Amino acid sequence: MALKQQTKSKIINFPGSISSHISSSKVPPSAELYAALDLGTNSCRMLIAQPNGSQFHVVDSFSKTVQLGAGLESTGRLSKISMARTIGALMICQRKLRHHSVTRMRLIATEACRRASNATEFINLIERETGLQLEIIPAEEEARLAVISCAPLVSINTKQLLVVDIGGGSTELVWIDLSEVPKVDRRKAIMKLHLGFDSNQDDFPKAKVVDWISVPLGVATLKEQFNDVTDDSAKFALMSWFFEEKLARFSPYKDGLQIKDGFQVVGTSGTVTTVAASHLGLDRYDRGKVDGLRMTSHQIENVIQSYLALGPEGRRKDPRIGKDRHVLIMSGAAILQALMRIWPTDRMSVADRGLREGLLYAQMSQDGVLEEGA
After folding, report:
1. pLDDT digits (tens, 9 = 90+) for 44-85
2. What pTM was estimated for this model as a whole?
3. Which of 111, 229, 253, 317 could serve as a FRET partner for 46 with CA atoms 20 to 30 Å apart?
4. Is 25 exposed, middle or buried (0-12, 13-18, 19+ CB in 10 A)?
């Protein structure tokens, strides 16, 4: 299932220019800007950043709920309305890229476009309307990008790592064994996974991917499965158990693997960050307080139970959840609760980072403009 081919950063010039798509192995100066765009089932997000030591400095960002996958479960196609909303968001991204004169970028689409029968038609429409060339990436690459984005949050004492990325249309889980990697090299070993889950790293201690899975259920698609259930608590319970059933092929679940010593769970998604913000009582979201926060399983469960107690109307009015998140928060919470039930653990590390950050790390690492270390 591993992805053998590495994808290089693209150089893109917008309509009216001489060339629209060139691959280059040239190493750019460290001041050059990079961009990463993630078009998911529910949202369109972009970061523009500059290499800065072993990390990067964000110059500009964009995030908008586009609901690209609305109705996909029933029709198998992207609707005209959803595509129009998405192209409107991508036009804003195009203007930002042009404003900052960004040439090195990766622009990706995930689960909704992987599943839609008219996805190729839509990708071609995007290029005609905006000049942006999006690529539909396979599930494994989506999982890899989520993992490497979380590398800076992994403790040097972690021996077994579970990274969970709850998206709009799918959920990726990756189990990594770091027990054979020296403590000081564990974060670096995770970053090396951008080369592939089964890549040979003979010159460096390897992070072993025990197993990974992409479940075709995310916050939007899981919710659509149970739209006909009116009772709030019953719907939540059904969503949680339904998601757990989809993990049957995941070997750590199948084999009943239970590890507490040196075990770390890192969760990355709007669901996880919203639960963290609710736990902290933040009426206004603060990434600095959320990213890297370690929540106990008891704290997570308390927040989920408080959401259930609020009911649909209460969640809609709760400023901690936000107007764009309240409709999908319970399907995300159902996935989160299922995971915490399966692998009883004391804590989860919260990551306000994901595919965009993974794309940036991968591009910059490949171009050799990041300093060694995480």
Report:
1. 999 999 998 878 999 999 999 999 999 898 899 999 999 999
2. 0.82
3. 317
4. exposed
